[in-house]
Amino acid sequence: MASNFFSAKAPSNKNVVKHTVDPSLQPWVEKYRPKTIDEVSAQEHTVAVLQKTLTSTNLPHMLFYGPPGTGKTSTILALARQLFGPDNFRNRVLELNASDERGISIVREKIKNFARQTPRAQAVASDGKTYPCPPYKIIILDEADSMTQDAQGALRRIMESYARITRFCLVCNYVTRIIEPLASRCSKFRFTPLDSESSSLRLSHIAQAEHVDINQPVIDALISTSSGDLRRAITYLQSASRLSSSSNPPTPILPADIQEIAGVVPNDVINDFAIVLGIEANAGMDVDEVPNQRRSGFEPMRKKVKFLMREGYSAAQIISQLHDFVVFHPTLNGRKKSVCALVFAEADKALCDGADEELWVLEVGLRVSKAVLS
Amino acid sequence: MSLWVDAFRPRTLDALHYHKGLSERLKSLAASGDFPHMLFYGPPGAGKKTRISCTLRQLFGPGAEKLKIDQRVFLSPSKRKLEINIVQSNYHIEITPSEAGNYDRVVIQELLKEIAQTQQVDLGAKQRFKVVIINEADSLSRDAQAALRRTMEKYMSNMRIILCANSTSRLIAPIKSRCLLMRVAAPNEEEIMAVLQSVARNAKFDLPPEAGNKIVEDCGGNLRKAILVLEALKMQSPDLTGSLNIAKPDWEVYCHKVADLIVSEQSPARVMEVRTKFYELLSHCIPPTVIMKTVAERVVDKVDEALKADIMHWAAFYEVRMRNGNKKIYHLEAWVVKVMSLYKHFIYNVDMSDFD
């Protein structure tokens, strides 16, 4: 009994801390989390299915997967809130994520204890609204793909034996890292990267609510740097507005600011590097310069790479931007592009293995220029 | 009597010599009360740490400079004891979790939770939050970075995290998207010169421009190295005139010797010779990557243009293998043999074409 008492207390304590946060200091990502599942941007299919479960109040075990920032955690939190209302939310929902210890022992103890307690009868909600408040609890396992195989294995039986009073919701980026027996117990929902229209709507809504003055180019820059990850776009927006409002006098946000915040290498730096590699930025525009740029030797390349490293740009970022530059280049032929793509792939693997950045940027430069000039 | 590097380190954001725009930004952010998590990245010796400590001073006043060093013991899941050194003041705490090796996740989880769940005790403090500085963030393991993700959002009211890294390549995207990125580029030549001049002024002597130029050339954008070299030179010849030779570190000279050996003769006997030299270097704890890079750069300087690209290619190739592999010496040796055979082939082919 005693252990039950404490484990029930622990999550509620955390929530109390969370609720005392001064709203002006809260990250916007938290502040503008959708309150109901209708508010969730895009993901029409998933929302439609979940809407139905709201009315029937019957919920399967669920597995949400998709790239970061597409609203997986937001959806389940909003759903839980709509099901239970603010009062019951705390003792009906257990949220565990990678920052909590999640070895096999936790699965055995904490989840089992939480799952074992039968939910209390429904109380009247304090805000006067009625909530369905179905007789089960929800356990959210956020970032479930970072759970160990053993811990996932331990979940299998628990999921079944407590299926009467608990529903599990696993949230992960890579569905392949969830072991098959767990995946087959859940109904899967795939979250797709956000299209630019719905991101743009959401961003301008937040900007309006926060009285931030942004224009269309800035929104475009936000969307292109975040590539479908709404959380990243919102964080960048918040950082940019912090910077602009804290400078004296307040300056408007520019697309270049967004790029700097996102750690993107400025375009002209990449263009310069490409010229050293022997690729002209815009074929036809500077035809007269082409002949003497053609013969790029080893020394200028080494100098350029040293310069890039001294400027502190990250190798992975340089390579990914150079990749975009080469792949979308108008005049290079397919064969050259494929050779370059091969080089980029190798370099990415090497960097993931922790290789030396300078050596590999130089390597990429040398091989790309060889491919282009051949 | 401390080193000049420490003695003349700027204490406030206003005193910083270069990247004025960045300093302005930091200052206005510190003043706004809405301070975000931050990630400082840039090459070594560019002044990341200096900027962080200046920002702290701006945030909390001089109290942030009263440091004490603590040793904390953490228990790994297998009940092994991990001892971590912690530098802290009343307002901030500084850790290098990579000291804990594989168990850095434990350190991050326990320490951050402990800090995050207690509030600022000092009522007179300027800010309500405390700051955690994580050094060498790019060597954090994946697990440890994943553990940071949610903590950074959840405990935003009590704590801000400042990460300090050489490159963002090895940080996972969720961490990067939660931080305000601050790129600290290495200072350019004029900026280094200006700093050296001001150090000289503070130490009350005149720095002749020739000596200054020589130091700037030698240090390769690393300001810490530049100031250390300046101090060493000053010790050698107090008036800093005449012919100065900047003493290269022993290992660098040794690496250059190895490179010369490779270029001058290519034979199995020479490989053995090089091998003993590599062993010598490794046993003096010179990181194998540094050895390979230094030797490769020297070799590249001495060979024909056509060979340079290939030599660097194989250096990059074997460097990755070295990271993945276990015994470093194999890969260093493999690279040397490869370079030698390339070189021989090259010479041989040239000879043949001459005969034709």
What does this structure look like?
The complex is a heterodimer of chains A (374) and B (356). Chain A has 374 residues and is α/β, with parallel strands linked by helices. Chain A has 3 domains: 21-190, Rossmann fold; 196-262, Helicase, Ruva Protein, domain 3 (Orthogonal Bundle); 267-373, Zinc Finger, Delta Prime, domain 3 (Up-down Bundle), CATH 1.20.272.10. Helix content of chain A is 58%, strand content 6%. Chain A has 17 helices and 5 strands. Chain A has helices at 2-19, 28-31, 44-56, 72-92, 104-116, 149-161, 180-185, 196-209, 216-226, 230-246, 255-261, 267-277, 290-294, 298-311, 315-327, 334-352, 357-373; strands at 62-65, 93-96, 137-141, 166-172, 187-190. Chain A has a 5-stranded parallel beta sheet with strand order 2-3-4-1-5. In chain A, strand 3, helix 6 (149-161) and strand 4 form a beta-alpha-beta unit. Chain A starts with a helix and ends with a helix. Residues 1-21 and 283-294 of chain A have low confidence and may be disordered. Chain B is α/β, with parallel strands linked by helices and 356 residues long. Chain B is 55% helix and 11% strand. Chain B is built from 14 helices and 7 strands. A 7-stranded mixed beta sheet of chain B has the order 2-3-4-5-6-1-7, with helices on both faces. In chain B, strand 4, helix 4 and strand 5 (130-134) form a beta-alpha-beta unit. In chain B, helix 7 (189-202) crosses helix 8 and helix 10 packs across helix 12 (288-302). The N and C termini of chain B lie far apart (70 Å). The model of chain B has no long low-confidence stretch (mean pLDDT 85). The chains are: A alpha/beta (374), B alpha/beta (356). At the A-B interface, helix 1, helix 10, helix 14, helix 15 and helix 17 of A face helix 2, helix 5, helix 6, strand 7 and helix 12 of B.
